[in-house]
Amino acid sequence: MQGQLAVAYGALIHQMWSGKHSVVVPRELKSLIGKFEPRFNGYNQQDSQELLAFLLDGLHEDLNLITNKPYIEEKDADGRPDSVVADEAWEAYQQRNDSIIVDNMHGQLKSTVVCPECSKVSIKFDPFCFLSVPLPSTERSTRSRENKVQISECFDLFTREEELGEHDLWYCPQCKEHRQASKKLDLWKLPDTLIVHLKRFQYTRWFREKLDFPVEFPVRGFDLTDRVLEKSGQQYVYDLIAISDHSGGLGGGHYTAIGLNKGKWYNFNDSYASDLGDLPDVKSSRQAYMLFYQRRGTNGYNSPRKCNGNGPATNGTPPSNGATGEAASTNGAMDVGTSADM
Ligand SMILES: [Zn+2]
Questions:
Q1: Across all residues in the chain, what is the average pLDDT?
Q2: Topology of domain 45-139+147-295, per CATH?
Q3: How far is the CA of 81 from the centre of ligand 1 (A)?
Q4: Domain-by-domain residue ranges, the chain?
Q5: How far is residue 332 CA from its own chain's centroid?
């Protein structure tokens, strides 16, 4: 996308935070996204998680300091300690991906697959940007619409061992056969800005539905330390900073957002923004679709990036003149981050 998405996004953020407008229409960004990804053209209802995934991936690639991605062969864990294999996988990932998005928003999942025939264990560490957690739905006939789900139940389900489906077989390198293996995911390390995607939309071959029962989640002090396998003595405690809400059903729903600014919560609904006052420490919501958490003690962007100063940079252009949005040059990796004063 040759930096176009980052420039348009930077300009929008600059415009939004200029204090000059009560309403900003993101026309340019919207049409640019549609140009690169035609399914986002027009005015059909879209999935906010899919849109955000596209946007974050596009921003990452626009801001990626690595221009020539080296080919890196994936190595087998081969019984080596998890921490060694995880670090190796992360370093390999960073040799191909180096951006403010990776620094702040990407974490690492551990996946363990076991062959039911020969018991071969395959362990991999994969980066992620969204933690897409399932909602308990198998017992939906007994679960009343009023029955609250705790977000911890969603995390339990996410890390539960499961048998792969018949159409989702795993190729066992030892048996040299496709097997219906068991698979388990674990959180290895979490990013400073954590996006939890509640999988409310269920699509199967036979039906589509939206699970709209309330989910209860912490607004302050979401402690995930015990769920993170990387034991570095660090605490993983998060505070909520925003919510993407979806109300209504599958076809004709409506998206709104809740966001925190300078300690106050606001609701954003098309061209209206309203003050929500304070939120309780724990919130229950039927609409919450994506939850945005910031790790306590971090501020939304990590220490200055290489390109913001003495930078090396693989693409070598010096930083542009000042941090104004208009100056978002093709190299303008920092303009997005610094003007997003959230
Ligand atoms: Zn096997």
A1: 85
A2: Cathepsin B; Chain A (3.90.70)
A3: 21
A4: 45-139+147-295
A5: 23
